[in-house]
Amino acid sequence: MSTTQVSSPVRLGLPGRDTPETLLHVGTALLVVALAVSAFAVWTPFGIAATFVLTLIVSNAMPAGVPVLIICAFLFQNLVVAWFTPYIPDNDTFDALRGTNFIILMTAFGIFLAASFQYRVRALTELRPWLLLSMVLCGTICFYFALGVVHGDPKDAVVYFRNTITPLACFHVAVLAASLYPVDLRKSMLWLGAGAIVYGYAELTFTMDFLGLFHGDQYVERSISRQVETGVWEKALQETGFVYRGIEDVMTTTFFNTPLFNDILPSVFRIGGPNFHPISYAYALSIISAWLLFKGRWVLPLAALPLLLVIGSKGATFMLFVAIAVRLIYSPSRAGLALMAAMALAVVWTTAAIGYGATHGDYHVLGLIAGMRDFLADPLGQGLGLGGNLSSTSINLNWQTAQA
């Protein structure tokens, strides 16, 4: 992002300009992601340096395309990683390749954070409170990250730092880019959403045969190798009689991921999407679909709905249903009513989910309650990564006992 670059007034939807610009943004984003992951496959330090340079170039030459680059990195990066899976020697290198999108995001965040001090940004008075809040939160996260490194496992602290700083970094880049440049995501989101949905149906239809085309099956095997190595499935055999035969056992579940349909509907292949993570993929589909709905696009959101039902992410599915309902009743004269309806549905859903989870031992809800309890007991906390289901302490955790 050049300190001298001045954006022209925002002009969206100019005939003949949108499609080439969209293809440029999406094509550049896909190319940068592919090159960055390839650089990591060569050597991790080289990958970090190359990813930094590539993101720096895009941020300066095409700042309005940085949001598309970030979305593309999080949605399609692991599809590129899968191609390299057979050639990755160890899990540390594998994790490094999967961290490419975080390097892209943090490089863009650093560039846009530095740009926040430019005069033209300081002149935007309505933007100041949001930027100040972003910086304060960033400082707080970094402080607790340092505590986590000192008092716990540095790798666990990095994992939780990544998950905590990511939404803040995305927000900062998005709000600053939208304030300075003519960012129009209408067609970019359409292309990215269409690609994600087509991928989902291909995976659902051809399952392991489809994944095998680009070593996706080996990616999934590598992802669960830690569970195999630590004896998780051996313990499951001893306690429940479940025999782990292959990755299809892990990726097969009941319809809508609930035992309610065990005796009614057959089991389904729980697709993971191009990012190889069912829940993240579901929320990506839901968010993109909701965004497209309010841009007047109905085909892709409706096409995404069956995929959400197969994945079984109840929160993502509920979100899309709410978006469809609000879109049906929305009009400029009834904007307030639509907002109140969405808020009421959100309150009802959240209350019902917490109530059901608390009485049925859902570890998401139990974790929320435990977190609130410990926060009240120690508001200052201990640091990032000290405990939690993503930390190294949870590898051999017995979830049945934890939920008792």
Mean pLDDT: 87
Beta-strand share of residues:
under 5%
The helix-and-strand class reads mainly alpha
Query: Which sequence of SSEs, written as H and E, runs from N to C?
Result: HHHHHHHHHHHHHEEHHHHHH
Query: What is the distance, rounded to the nearest whole angstrom, between the alpha carbons of the first and last residues?
Result: 53 Å
Helix content: over 70%
Distinct helical segment count: 19
Main pleated sheet:
2 strands, antiparallel
Write down the Rg. Answer: 22 Å
Low-confidence stretches: 2-16
Shape: globular
Give the domain tally.
2
What is the number of beta strands?
A: 2
How are the strands of the biggest sheet laid out side by side? Answer: 1-2
Protein architecture, described:
- By secondary structure, the protein is mostly helical.
- It has two domains: 19-188, no CATH class; 194-402, no CATH class.
- The chain is built from 19 helices and two strands.
- The protein has helices at residues 18-42, 44-61, 66-84, 91-98, 100-115, 119-122, 128-151, 154-180, 186-212, 216-223, 225-229, 232-240, 247-251, 278-293, 299-311, 314-329, 335-360, 363-377, 399-402, and strands at residues 252-253, 268-269.
- It is globular, with a radius of gyration of 22 Å.
Entry keywords:
single chain; 404 residues; mainly alpha; two-stranded antiparallel ribbon; globular
Chain-wise SSE layout:
Elements: H1 18-42, H2 44-61, H3 66-84, H4 91-98, H5 100-115, H6 119-122, H7 128-151, H8 154-180, H9 186-212, H10 216-223, H11 225-229, H12 232-240, H13 247-251, E1 252-253, E2 268-269, H14 278-293, H15 299-311, H16 314-329, H17 335-360, H18 363-377, H19 399-402
Helix pairs in contact: 1-2, 1-3, 1-4, 1-9, 2-5, 3-5, 3-9, 3-10, 5-8, 7-8, 9-14, 9-15, 14-15, 14-16, 15-16, 16-17, 17-18
